[in-house]
Protein 1
Amino acid sequence: MILVFGGNGQLAKAFQFQLEKENKKFIALNRKQCDVTDYIQLKSAFETFRPKIVINASAYNLVDECEVNYFEGFKVNAFSVAHMTDLSKKFGSFFVHFSTDYVFDGSKCGLYCENDSPNPLNEYGKSKLLGEKFLLQSQSECLILRTSWVYGNSKNNFISKLMGWCKNNEYLKIAYNEFSVPTSAYDIAYYSLIAINKGLSGVYHLVNSGFCSRFEWAKLTLSLLGINKFLYPVDRSIFNLKANRPFFSAMSNELFCRNLNVEIRDWQNALIDFLQNYYEK
Ligand SMILES: NC(=O)C1=CN([C@@H]2O[C@H](COP(=O)(O)OP(=O)(O)OC[C@H]3O[C@@H](n4cnc5c(N)ncnc54)[C@H](OP(=O)(O)O)[C@@H]3O)[C@@H](O)[C@H]2O)C=CC1
Ligand SMILES: Cc1cn([C@H]2C[C@H](O)[C@@H](COP(=O)(O)OP(=O)(O)O[C@H]3O[C@@H](C)C(=O)[C@@H](O)[C@H]3O)O2)c(=O)[nH]c1=O
């Protein structure tokens, strides 16, 4: 039995799609069914389902909000992870967890590898890094997959935000100087399950291949959707957002691919596939 936490999230939905496709036995619990910040509810979920594998797709992902509500961010992204780790150990479950490119400060000249030192610039990144640390310190059987700029079916990703900006503006201002790897939630789910099946453990970077700026991502998305809007490339500092974000946080998926003997398609082809086959407007 596979148990998924954070069942209403975009990654959790992609997992449910893939698990159904592979005929796997699973249960996905949303926040109402199990609040991961509540140890009693977590324990009861472990007791009820006795999962062989736990996939934690829950998170506090509002990066700007997290600067203010950092207590909530740390509760979900770090302390709940410690509790899930503890319960996974007790119940003999293999724990799969997700982390972010925002654990890095973006000052490296090149793609980030697993052995590069994290140095998060914002509270969200700090809370995610603490979650990683709790998990690694426990020396339990686990897999931590760091990913970036995730999109799936959700109202809270860059593509959905882009659609909102399109509705309300004659032209769009898009940052040309922020780089990472847009990554399809469907690709993450697909490759995570391969990794789980092959018994991969430790920390790995799981992203689509290549990298781009927010501007390039927006441009390709609108052109694939046939939306004709003028995109004005701007310096990201004009947005005055609460959270500081890394300038270049693109990660390399080389270690993940080498260990599993797989190739992961580039972000452009993943985006085409998503918009054609999965995107719910
Ligand atoms: N989105 C991104 O760009 C990136 C995401 N990641 C990581 O990937 C993972 C999945 O993220 P993603 O699917 O994108 O995020 P989403 O925001 O789409 O999903 C997160 C889910 O967690 C749920 N949740 C929040 N708090 C709790 C709680 N206390 N108890 C139970 N569930 C809770 C939310 O519930 P509700 O629907 O009720 O709000 C939501 O459904 C996370 O670990 C995230 O940090 C890593 C890099 C990039
Ligand atoms: C308001 C605005 C922002 N931007 C750019 C600059 C800004 O840094 C960026 C913010 O987009 P988002 O809010 O989608 O970005 P953000 O929420 O920071 O996205 C991050 O989420 C967390 C969960 C992660 O783990 C990261 O990998 C990353 O995906 O968009 C524009 O280009 N035009 C605009 O009009």
Note: The mean pLDDT is 97.
Protein 2
Amino acid sequence: MTLLKLLNLVKWPKALLFTIIVLSIASAVISLALPILTRDLIDAFTNNSASSKDVITYIVIFAINGLAGGTSFYLIKLLGSKIMFGLRETIFSNIIKLPVSYYDRTETGVVISRMTDDVETINDFITEKLTNLISQVIIIVGSITMLFILDWKLTVLIFIAIPIILVVIIPIGNLTYKIAMEKQDTLANFTGLLNRVLSEIRLVKVYNAEKKELSNANKSLKDLYNLSLKEAKIQSIVSPVVTSTLIFVLFSVIGYGVYRISIGTLTAGTFVAIIFYLVQAVTPMASLSAFFTEFKKTEGATKKLYDLYLEEKERLLENKQNNDNEYIEQSLGDIEFKNVSFAYNEEEIVLKNVNFKIPAQKITAIVGPSGSGKSTIFYLLERLYQVSEGEITFHNVNINEYPLHEWRKQIGYVMQESSLMGGTIEENLVYGIDNNYTEADLHRIAKISNSEEFIAKFKDKYQTLVGERGVKLSGGQKQRISIGRALFRDPKILLLDEATSSLDSESEVYVQEAINNLIKDRTTLIIAHRLSTVKNADQIIFLDNGVITGIGTHDELMSSHEKYSYFVQTQSFD
Ligand SMILES: Nc1ncnc2c1ncn2[C@@H]1O[C@H](COP(=O)(O)OP(=O)(O)OP(=O)(O)O)[C@@H](O)[C@H]1O
């Protein structure tokens, strides 16, 4: 059962669970005793033999029952919250370890919905159904048994209703389940759409796509609307059938009971006890009838969550202790691509048998037409994807042999779009730094990344909020913050995706200065878009449609590589 497998991932609060079970059994037993006590009290009153002790005992037991009910209600909610916490923590720690390739094929909104809606469904099932199961079964079985003992003729009358209710409930239960599953999927899709649209709201607006997105949203919303209506229609059939049957039974029982009292074959106390048991048994019965539908629905949610948990994670090798790690501590080391081929999917091979060396502490620039595979080389170095063939080595050791986090710690990656996280400037500068840093470090990094001046102009200085993905900063400011972020890590290897978007010349100078500070004494690989960069590089790699067609200095390639010299003349190289 997937639910058990999933729940096994969470540390079960066993003592709490045990207390809940004991309390709910105790409460069920008291509930079963109450009608008998009521009967005795009523009959005692009828015979004028009731003592005040009887009344007090009755009230005390009633109060204990209420107290046990209240306490177990709280404890069940506590159990649910603990399980939700555990599940969300476990699943989140897993989804954050899933490789980038997983997110290439999955909409993030769907993952969000798993973490929110599906976990909630499981919580509802546990707190409202599973934990009450034992006490409900005890109450139903106990009440029916007591009914038979008290008066079998009346009980038979009650049982006539059960097949009528079952005939309606069972087939409809399956239908409700199907609708619930459809609803879960539609909701996940809608969350996906919401996430996509809201994260790119500027794009939506400048391309006048509001109407289009609204009509996309409309489809999901209509589906949700129709499914809710379907659910309502089903309920509008089930509910009156069940209620009328129950009322019919109740009236018959009351009529027959009153008749029996009038002819003296039933005491008033026993009659009240029967009604008491009847009411007591009906509520858990209704809840139990929905148990299997809810269970199936929860199994659906559980399976999706468990599948997410089973998805293959990035290979971390965190506990690996061997000599290879020592290499990573040394600063000097060449990186080599040896016969590397790579494809994101079967349709297209992006890198084809690529061989080159990135010498330590030198600048290597990669140039080539759009889509030739330049960024892919960075992703492979960051181990965001695994090579399909060949290997990438550092100190002649396959980079996969290094623990992933240790390896990534050596690399500073300044992305072209200068991705920032929502939060403050300080949080962005120190992003991913787990050791302590001082105020002085912060100022030093801001200074060498040329950010100090513009940060000082903000009212909140380092605590200025940058907005989602840094929307409140200018392009040049964002770039300088990302350069600062890379500097903070003091990486040995630097991956720099030079921005194609042109900054104004003043900003450009600031960014260039920051880059020069960043590059110093590091093994640098730049995706180059400027003539000054390629001229400064120790070697240039020309990548064309996934194949390296030339390696050399700017002057060498200008004289020997026709496409390179043409490229230099025609691209936006200044
Ligand atoms: N996540 C992905 N899934 C599938 N294909 C991808 C993915 N990322 C890139 N590609 C494809 O891989 C090829 C190389 O892309 P890459 O981004 O490495 O090129 P590039 O040289 O950096 O281009 P540009 O200069 O335009 O940024 C392209 O054909 C692209 O469509």
Note: Residues 104, 344-345, 350, 368, 370-376 surround adenosine-5'-triphosphate (CB under 6 Å).
